[in-house]
Amino acid sequence: MKRMMTIALLSVALAGCGEGSALNDTVQISVRESLVATCTTAAGEQIPEGIDVDISAVCGCAADKVMDGQSVAELVSNPPSPTEAMSKVQACLKELGPVKVDAAA
Fold first, then answer.
1. pTM of this structure
2. Residue of 15, 49, 72, 105 with fewest CB within 10 Å of its CB?
């Protein structure tokens, strides 16, 4: 929550800097890292033992899809809903290949 407030405050500052500035790039990187961390934590809690998924790759892909074509201000004012986020994760799972099952688990 604190991080989202920081992002919101930074996005207001960005309005005066214009799109594409170094500060905007830094905030976008921070937003992406936050999305990946949140996704990784949530996915790690839901994937059963014996299922082999590259969570970092899937979550990175999903974060990129969420952010595609969005400014920081747009992401802050209109964050993705859980349904939208899940659809991005599902698309990435399809793109990155089949999930592997470890029979020994």
1. 0.71
2. 49
